[in-house]
Amino acid sequence: MIGTAFESGKPYISRPEDRAAALAWVFDEGVGSFAHVPLGLGPRRFGILTVIHPEEGALDDRRLALLDSLARPAAAAIANALEFQHERKIAAALTRGFVPGEPPDLEGYALGLVYEPVGHEVSGGDIFGVWRLPSGALAVLVGDASGKGLEVAAVSAMVRFFVEARTWDSEDPAVVLAQANAILRRRLPGRVALVTAFLAVIDGGVLRYANAGHIPPLVTGHDRPAVELPTTGVPLGVADDVIFEQHELPFGPGDQLFASTDGLHEARRDGELFGHERVGALVAEHALLEPQALVELAYSEAEAWAGALTDDVAIIALRAGASGDTEIRAEAADGPAARALYAQYMQLLRDRIGAGWEPSERIFATEDAFGAEGGAWLVAYDEHGEAVGCGGLRTLERGVGEIKRMFVAPDARRHGRGRRLLRELERRAAAHGHTRVRVLTTEVLSEAIALYAGEGYRTVQRSARAGRPVEIWMEKDLTG
To answer: Are 335 and 306 in contact (CB under 8 A)?
Structure first.
């Protein structure tokens, strides 16, 4: 009976003789009469609306007409939902090519990426990417197409892939954006009014950029204040024959580019925006974090401030890393390089804690701590052969290693050497069978705390003694 109603598209009202044809349990459950009303639009049918009544013959033509009037808008709602689901799948397919999984490994750079569409469903408006050019230069793109839906996803995909393809022929961001504007000018559908885009090319320690109406990204560095990269032209698709200015600035080891779409800045609480000033202050305060930790922090701060984000958010942080000539060697912990670096480390602590402070340990935590089974002492050398950093590993207890005397000379920082040292110590700890590593630091060493936090360490204990700064135990699980 249900099949007949579905195939014919006509409602079916039960008759007395249906009792013999139906499954016995149906009428045993107190069903006196029933009706099957198809849910469909024209030849398309989506299902059957079934209504039952405890009294035999209670469903007459008048009630059937009422059910039919309910079925028509219900079918329309189902059709709209299916169409929306289909559109979402297409939008996801269009954007899948540039939605990141794990951030790519870019030699010489550390990259952080966050992409969070509203409702965690890919919607297509945000544009972003980082890729290598044939020359070896690095390109960075962040942008935003106004609007939502399938047309917006199509425009975003077109911009993303056109820009990447064009950078293979021209490494001038202004030229690429001008050509993208010419392509878009007559192709923007009605739902998309404009597209903002920031494009940078990094090569030979120089960052060249053009900005088509996008929120100004930030560049931070250890030897200069944060620099905004302002707009150098109108958004794409607004006017014909647009000329974009192109600017450049130094971008060397330790420098970091932070760029995002407007969903981060326009997070709202009681009508107030999270805003450019808050984003800038956050980036400046936490510039020492690893890029991935920084972008995740920025997203979580905006989300916590607003309660819930109402727009897609894409964030990129890119930091130039250490020179490829940096070398890490395993050495004796009482060698000349270790002694000289340890002396700098102790002097740094005295300067920050106070002249009256003296360590309770020598360079060794215990006799032969770093030479015993499960131990190591590493020294980092720069491209000139100068010892610029060190760190030791010893076995604290079964399955647990301790990293000690981790130090990079102040004038050699912001080149990624601390991260390289730490990761090599962790690698050796895992090779010795350790499943966890711990490190003891102090609140006066804010750079060290930021490094450990950025590499996945969590605080497990804090303690304070009279006249001394707070000591902090941090730990990392190596099995993840």
So the answer is: no
Strand positions, DSSP E, 92-223: 109-116, 126-132, 138-145, 195-203, 206-212, 218-221
- 282 DSSP 8-state letter: H
Query: What tokens appear for 89 in the block?
Result: 């799948």
> What are all long-range contacts of 130-135, with beta carbons under 8 Å and residues at least 24 apart?
130/104, 130/106, 130/316, 130/318, 131/164, 131/167, 132/106, 133/167, 133/168, 133/171, 133/201, 134/168, 135/171, 135/203
Which strand ranges, in their side-by-side order, compose the sheet holding 44-53?
Answer: 12-13, 33-41, 44-53
Q: At what angle do helices 446-454 and 291-306 cross, to 10 degrees?
A: 90
The closest of 433, 441, 444, 427 to 475, measured between CA atoms, is: 441
CB contact burial 383-404 (16+ within 10 A = b; e otherwise) = eeeebbbbbbbbbbeeebbbbb
**Could you tell me the two tokens for 422?**
């730490």
Reference 146, options 245, 266, 47, 287; nearest CA is 266
Give the C-alpha separation, 394 to 361, whole Å. 15
- The helix/strand/coil state of 425 is helix
Helix residue spans in 133-261 (DSSP H): 150-167, 173-185
Please report, for residues 36, 408, 450, the alpha-carbon distance to residue 468 in angstroms, rounded to integers and kept in the order given.
Answer: 81, 23, 21
Among left, alpha and beta (phi > 0; psi -120 to 50; other), residue 151 is: alpha
pLDDT at 117 over 80: no
Length of the chain: 480
The C-alpha atoms of residue 270 and residue 362 are separated, in whole angstroms, by 56
Please give the Cα distance from 209 to 335 (Å, whole number). Answer: 47
Q: How far apart (Å, rounded) are the C-alpha atoms in residues 55 and 352?
A: 88
Calpha distance 401→202 (Å, rounded): 39
Residue 49's alpha-carbon distances to 36, 67, 112, 246, 273, in angstroms, are: 6, 8, 51, 63, 47
Q: Is the full-model pTM beyond 0.85?
A: no
For residue 313, report the phi and psi dihedrals to the nearest 5 degrees.
-135, 125
Query: Which two structure tokens, joined as six digits, stand for 73?
Result: 């808008």
Cβ contacts of 18 within 8 Å, gap of 6 or more: 1
pLDDT class for 23, splitting at 50, 70, 90?
confident
pLDDT single digits (tens) 449-466: 888 888 889 999 998 877
